[in-house]
Amino acid sequence: QKEVEQDPGPLSVPEGAIVSLNCTYSNSAFQYFMWYRQYSRKGPELLMYTYSSGNKEDGRFTAQVDKSSKYISLFIRDSQPSDSATYLCAMSGWDFGNEKLTFGTGTRLTIIP
Amino acid sequence: NAGVTQTPKFRVLKTGQSMTLLCAQDMNHEYMYWYRQDPGMGLRLIHYSVGEGTTAKGEVPDGYNVSRLKKQNFLLGLESAAPSQTSVYFCASSSGYGYTFGSGTRLTVV
Lengths: 113, 110
Fold this sequence. Notes:
Radius of gyration of chain B: 13 Å
Helix content of chain A: under 10%
Number of strands of chain A: 11
Radius of gyration of chain A: 14 Å
Oligomer: heterodimer
Shape of chain A: globular
Largest interface: A-B, 22 and 22 residues
Mean pLDDT of chain B: 94
Number of helices of chain A: 0
C-alpha cells in the first residue's frame, strides 16, 4: 500500500464549477500538507501549505485537512480554464532535520470553457 | 530572481553513455533534491542533500550519483545510461517550508 493515495483522474468539469481533489494517507507522522500545481511540461509549483487540521483559504482555493481520517482535500471555486493542470498532494514528515516530502501521483484536471 | 535552474532542458543519450545534470538555486536553501517523474508513478526521490558536502540516497538511487560541492549547486550523474532511465528529472530546493522546483530535464535514452 502506498503511503499517499490520489485518484489519478482525469477529471473534466465545466468552467465555473466547484472542483474537489482528494488524497488519503496512512503515515501518522505526516505533519505538513501541501498541494502543488503542475502545468504541462513545467515543474510543480507550491499552491497551498497547511499544518493543522481544518481549512485554509487563499482566493478561490481552499485546502482542508482531517488528520483523524488521514484525508486531505483541495477545493477550487469558480474554476477557470487556466486551472487546467495536474494537481499533486504532498505530505511532510521530518527525518533528522530534513524535510522529506511524499507525493501523490497527481490528478489531471481539465476545465472546459 | 531565477529560483531553481536546471540544465540542460532536453537530452538524448545512447545506452551506455554518461552525462551530468546540473541544478543551481539562488535562494540560499540548505536542502536540495533530485526526483524523476514517470507516467503513473508520480515523483520519486533519487538522491537528496541536507547541506553542502552531504548527500543521501532516496527511493530510487541505483544508476545515479550526486555531488554537492557548493551550497547552490546539486549535480546528478548517470555513469552508464540505460533505457529505463528515460524520464523527466526535476531538481528542487527547500528551506523547510515546501519545495521550489526547477522546470525539468527531459532525458531520452535510446
